[in-house]
C-alpha cells in the first residue's frame, strides 16, 4: 500500500499526526522536547536521538564559530567539518525517506499521509539550525572557499548513498584527529568535545549504512572507543560543563544583589564554586579553600589559571665569568631568542625560544649562566651580600642562590653552604665548579643545630623548606598532596630554622647583622606567621627588602594579627608578577642576646604598647639600604656589652628596673604571676 492510500475500513482513533503537528507550531523555537516538559507526549526513541543530535550539531557549530573567530582552527579544517555536516544531513534525509517508506509499508494505521515518526517537532528547530548553519558556512567560507565537491561521478558500481557514507567516514577521521589532539584552549576544547560526540553519533549511522551497503570494508565502519577514549570524552564534556558553571557562579557572586536566586544564600554559591574549582583545576578541598581565603574571586581565578601555565625560562648571567651583553650575544648567535628579564635586574635574561637545549649550550657548560627562575633572584638581592663578608646559606641545595651570592661577593670572603640532604649537596658541588665559585665551604648539617657548630655570620640566607604552594606550575602534585598537617609541620620546622638563622648571625658584624627569610609558598602560616614568631622570640626587626616590586605581606589575615612592620615583607605571585609564588622578609638583628621567656612576654607587651611607633618606622622609605637601616636601628638599639655572639651560651634573664616600666606592663605581669600561682595551687 502506498503512503497516500487510505484504508476505507480504518477506524479513526483520535486526532491524526497532522493535527497534532499543527498544535506544535505554537511552541517556542528553542523549546526542548523532553518527556519531563510534556509528560503526555509520547516521543519515539528515534526522535529523542535526533533531538540529541540536533543539540550536538548546534554545540559544534557554536564551538566552531568561536574557534574560528579566535583563529584556533584553520579555514580548511572548518570547511571540512561543515562539509561533514552537509553530508551527514543528506544521509539522514535519505535515511528518513527510506524509513518512512518502510513504516508506511508496515503500518496499517495510515489515516494520514505522514508517518508518526515524522511529527517529531523538528521543523522549527531544523529551521533555526539551518539558519545558523547557513550563516556559519557563509562566515567561514567567505571568498576563500575551496570547492572540493567531486561527487558527480561515483566510483565503479557505487550507489550515491555508499559514496556519501564513505565521504562521511573520511571526514570522521579528520574529526577524530582533532579530538585526539592536545589542547589548552577552551574554544578548541569545546570544539573537540562537540566534534567528538557528533562524530560518535554519526558513527552509528555509518554502521547502519554498512549493514545495508556491505561493500565497505568492515574495519572502516565503527571503531569501538577504548576505555581511555570514553574517559577523555567524558572528561572534556564534564570540564566544559563545569567551566561554564564556574563562570556563571562568579558572575552571580560579582553582582549578588541583582543576579542571585533569592532562595539561595551566598554560602550556597560559594560552596558550589569551591567544589567546581576543585574539580576543574584538580585541587583538593583544603588547598582550594586556603586560596579562596587568600584572594578575591577574580584574583583567585587568575592565580589558579597562572598555576596552569609554565613560567618563562629565565637565566642569570654569571658575572664571575662574563657580562650579560656578551652572553646574550653568544646565545643569539646560536639562534636563541631572548631579552633582558626586567628593569629590576642587570643580570637576568628571559629565553623565549632556543633551537638548542638551554641547559646544554657550551656557554652553560662553561658556567656563563645559571638557569634560574626570576623569583630566585629576589631573596639574594634582598640579602645584598658584600665582598669580603662571612655569609651563611643555611638550606642551600642545589645552590642556585648560593652561586648568585658568590658573584655579588666577587668570589671573596666566605660562604658557608649547608644542606641537610647529602644527595642534593652533590648538585651544589657541581654548580660551584661550573660557575667558578671558589669562596665556599660546603657542610651537611641539620641547620637547626647550626648555631652550636658555627656563628658570627654577617648575613644569613634561610631559603626554607616549604609546602611549595607558590610553585604549582612546576609541581602540580602539590594541588592534591598537601593538607593542613603538612602546612603545620612546615611552619613548625620553619620557626625552628628561623631562630637558628638569627642565632648564627652577628648583630655587631660590620655593615651586617642581616637575615633574609624566604619560601616558595604563599601560605600565611609559612610566611608572616613564622616572621612574626621570630620578631617575638629574638632581638630582630624587619627592614625593607630594597625590592621595587612585590606586594606587602599581611599584617591582618583572618584570625591572625601580626606586627605592623610585616608590611615590609614582600609577596610575589604568578598571576601578578609572572614569577613563582614567593615570600621574602629581611631582618636586622640588633642584639646578640637571646631573650628569655620572661623577656619574650615583656617584649610582646612592649610591642603592643608601641605599635604605632613601629608602624611609622616601618613605613619610612629611607630604610631601603643596609646602611640606612642600620643607622636607624642603632638609634633604637639598646647598649650592648656582649659583642661576640656565643649562640651556645644561654642568655641570662634580663631583669629591668620595675620603675622604668610602664604601669600597664607591670600590671599585666602581676596578673600573669597571679595566674601562675593559681595554676600551681590548682
Ligand atoms: C627550597 S630548598 C633550597 C633551594 C636553594 N636555596 C636554591 O636556591 O637552590 C630547601 C632546602 O632545604 C633543605 N632542608 C630541609 N630541612 C633542612 C634542615 N633541617 N636543615 C638544613 N637543610 C634543610 C632541603 O634539603 C632543601 O634542599
TrEMBL record:
The main location class comes to nucleus
Q: Where is S-adenosyl-L-methionine annotated to bind?
A: 395-401, 419, 446, 463
Q: Which InterPro entries match?
A: MeTrfase_RsmB-F_NOP2_cat, MeTrfase_RsmB-F_NOP2_dom, Nop2p, RCMT, RCMT_NOP2, RsmB-like_ferredoxin, SAM-dependent_MTases_sf
Q: Where is the composition biased (Low complexity)?
A: 612-626
Query: Has UniProt tagged this entry with the keyword Cytoplasm?
Result: no
An annotated GO cellular component of this protein is: nucleolus
**A GO BP term, please?**
rRNA base methylation
Supply the SUPFAM superfamilies for this chain: S-adenosyl-L-methionine-dependent methyltransferases
User: Which UniProt key words apply to this protein?
Assistant: Methyltransferase, Nucleus, Ribosome biogenesis, RNA-binding, S-adenosyl-L-methionine, Transferase
Organism domain of life: Eukaryota
Q: Where does it localize? A: Nucleus, Nucleolus
Q: Where is the composition biased (Basic and acidic residues)?
A: 1-12, 129-144, 596-610, 664-682
Where's the active site on this chain? Answer: 520 (nucleophile)
Gene3D superfamilies annotated for this entry? Sun protein, domain 3, Vaccinia Virus protein VP39
Residue spans of biased composition, Acidic residues class = 90-99, 107-128, 145-159
SAM-dependent MTase RsmB/NOP-type domain location is: 303-590
User: What are the protein's GO molecular function terms?
Assistant: RNA binding; rRNA (cytosine-C5-)-methyltransferase activity
Compositional bias ranges of the Basic residues kind: 43-55, 649-663
Could you tell me which residues belong to the region Disordered?
1-55, 90-165, 594-682
Protein family (similarity comment): Belongs to the class I-like SAM-binding methyltransferase superfamily. RsmB/NOP family.
Tell me the PANTHER family matching this sequence: 28S RRNA (CYTOSINE(4447)-C(5))-METHYLTRANSFERASE-RELATED, NOP2 YEAST -RELATED NOL1/NOP2/FMU SUN DOMAIN-CONTAINING
Q: Which NCBIfam families match?
A: nop2p
What is the protein name stated in its UniProt record?
A: SAM-dependent MTase RsmB/NOP-type domain-containing protein
Species assigned in the record: Ciona intestinalis
Amino acid at each position: 500500500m502506498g503512503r497516500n492510500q487510505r484504508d476505507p475500513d480504518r477506524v479513526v482513533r483520535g486526532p491524526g499526526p497532522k493535527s497534532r503537528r499543527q498544535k506544535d507550531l505554537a511552541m517556542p523555537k528553542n523549546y526542548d522536547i523532553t518527556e519531563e516538559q510534556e509528560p503526555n507526549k509520547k516521543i519515539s526513541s528515534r526522535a529523542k536521538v535526533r533531538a540529541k543530535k540536533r543539540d550536538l550539531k548546534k554545540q559544534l557549530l557554536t564551538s566552531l564559530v568561536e574557534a574560528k573567530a579566535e583563529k584556533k582552527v584553520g579555514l580548511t579544517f572548518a570547511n571540512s567539518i561543515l562539509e561533514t555536516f552537509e553530508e551527514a544531513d543528506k544521509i539522514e534525509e535519505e535515511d528518513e525517506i527510506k524509513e518512512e517508506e518502510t513504516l508506511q509499508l508496515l503500518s496499517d494505521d495510515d489515516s494520514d499521509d505522514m508517518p508518526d515518526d515524522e511529527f517529531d517537532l523538528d521543523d522549527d528547530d531544523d529551521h533555526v539550525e539551518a539558519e545558523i548553519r547557513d550563516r556559519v558556512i557563509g562566515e567561514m567560507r567567505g571568498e576563500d572557499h575551496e570547492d572540493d565537491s567531486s561527487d558527480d561521478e561515483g566510483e565503479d558500481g557505487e550507489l550515491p548513498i555508499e559514496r556519501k557514507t564513505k565521504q562521511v567516514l573520511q571526514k570522521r577521521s579528520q574529526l577524530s584527529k582533532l579530538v585526539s589532539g592536545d589542547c589548552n584552549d577552551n574554544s578548541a576544547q569545546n570544539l573537540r568535545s562537540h566534534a567528538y560526540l557528533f562524530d560518535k553519533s554519526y558513527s552509528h549511522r555509518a554502521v547502519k549504512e554498512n549493514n545495508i551497503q556491505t561493500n565497505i570494508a568492515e574495519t572502516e565502519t565503527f571503531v569501538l572507543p577504548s576505555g581511555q577514549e570514553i574517559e577523555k570524552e567524558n572528561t572534556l564534556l564534564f570540564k566544559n560543563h563545569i567551566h561554564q558553571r564556574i563562570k556563571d557562579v562568579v558572575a552571580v557572586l560579582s553582582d549578588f544583589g541583582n543576579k542571585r536566586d533569592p532562595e539561595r544564600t551566598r554560602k550556597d554559591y560559594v560552596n558550589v564554586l569551591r567544589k567546581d574549582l576543585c574539580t576543574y583545576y584538580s585541587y583538593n578541598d583544603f588547598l582550594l579553600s586556603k586560596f579562596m581565603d587568600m584572594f578575591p574571586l577574580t584574583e583567585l581565578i587568575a592565580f589558579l589559571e597562572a598555576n596552569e601555565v609554565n613560567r618563562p625560562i629565565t637565566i642569570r648571567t654569571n658575572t664571575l665569568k662574563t657580562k650579560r651583553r656578551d652572553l646574550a650575544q653568544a646565545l643569539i648567535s646560536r639562534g636563541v631568542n631572548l631579552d633582558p628579564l626586567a628593569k629590576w635586574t642587570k643580570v637576568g635574561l628571559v629565553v623565549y625560544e632556543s633551537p638548542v637545549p638551554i641547559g646544554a649550550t657550551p656557554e652553560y657548560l662553561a658556567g656563563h649562566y645559571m638557569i634560574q627562575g626570576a623569583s630566585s633572584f629576589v631573596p639574594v638581592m634582598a640579602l645584598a651580600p658584600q665582598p669580603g663578608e662571612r655569609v651563611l646559606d643555611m638550606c642551600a641545595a642545589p645552590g642556585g642562590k648560593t652561586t648568585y651570592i658568590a658573584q655579588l661577593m666577587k668570589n671573596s670572603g666566605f660562604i658557608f653552604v649547608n644542606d641537610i640532604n647529602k644527595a642534593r649537596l652533590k648538585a651544589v658541588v657541581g654548580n660551584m665548579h661550573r660557575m667558578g665559585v671558589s669562596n665556599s665551604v660546603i657542610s651537611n648539617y641539620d641547620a637547626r643545630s647550626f648555631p652550636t657548630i658555627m656563628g658570627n655570620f654577617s648575613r644569613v640566607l634561610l631559603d626554607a623548606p616549604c609546602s611549595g604552594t607558590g610553585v604549582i606550575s612546576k609541581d602540580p602534585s602539590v594541588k592534591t598532596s598537601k593538607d593542613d598537617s603538612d602546612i603545620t609541620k612546615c611552619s613548625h620546622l620553619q620557626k625552628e630554622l628561623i631562630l637558628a638563622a638569627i642565632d648564627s648571625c652577628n648583630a655587631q658584624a660590620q655593615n651586617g647583622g642581616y637575615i633574609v627569610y624566604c619560601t616558595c609558598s604563599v601560605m600565611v602560616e609559612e610566611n608572616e606567621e613564622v616572621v612574626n614568631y621570630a620578631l617575638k622570640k629574638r632581638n630582630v626587626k624587619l627592614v625593607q627588602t630594597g625590592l621595587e616590586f612585590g606586594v606587602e605581606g599581611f599584617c591582618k589575615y583572618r584570625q591572625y594579627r601580626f606586627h605592623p612592620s610585616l608590611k615590609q615583607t614582600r609577596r610575589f605571585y604568578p598571576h601578578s608578577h609572572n614569577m613563582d609564588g614567593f615570600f621574602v622578609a629581611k631582618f636586622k638583628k640588633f642584639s646578640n642576646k637571646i631573650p628569655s621567656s620572661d623577656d619574650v612576654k615583656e617584649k610582646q607587651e612592649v610591642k603592643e604598647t608601641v605599635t604605632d611607633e613601629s608602624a611609622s618606622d616601618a613605613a619610612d622609605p629611607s630604610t631601603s639600604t643596609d646602611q640606612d637601616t642600620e643607622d636607624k636601628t642603632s638609634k633604637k638599639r639598646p647598649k650592648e656589652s656582649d659583642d661576640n655572639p656565643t649562640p651556645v651560651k644561654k642568655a641570662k634573664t634580663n631583669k629591668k628596673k620595675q620603675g622604668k616600666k610602664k604601669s600597664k606592663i607591670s600590671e599585666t605581669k602581676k596578673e600573669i604571676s597571679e595566674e601562675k600561682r593559681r595554676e600551681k595551687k590548682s
